[in-house]
Amino acid sequence: MVTLQLTVDVDAPAQQTWVAVxxxxxxxxxxxxxxxxxxxxxxxxxxxxxxxKPLGFLDTMEITLWQPPRACHVRHTGRVVRGxxxxxxxxxxxxxxxxxxxxxxxxxxxxxxxxxxxxxxxFFAYGVKLSLKRFAAQVAxxxxx
Length: 145
Prior knowledge:
alpha+beta; globular; about 30% helix
């Protein structure tokens, strides 16, 4: 199991940040190379396709915790990505918030998978960091909900 946790401060209230976090259909606007669809609430399913067909993979998830406007936890159920993930929003006063992205992943292929993670992690983390910065900028530009 490996963990990746990244955060971004957002110049928007927690409720506004939450609404943007769980707007799965617009996640592709800020998450690099990914399109997402899905439902809301515990038991709902989410599908994220990363890459361009035929080069890419489908990450299927099931929501295991739904606590608006604070937390959405998922269980990755696909063949490539396994483990858990969390999308959490923390208030930072009345007009700011923090978005926390966490992945606890079960790596495939044993030792080979762990070695691959050492090489892949910096690129993956960079991509998520860049995506979170894009997210924060987009949410800050939206009208307050």
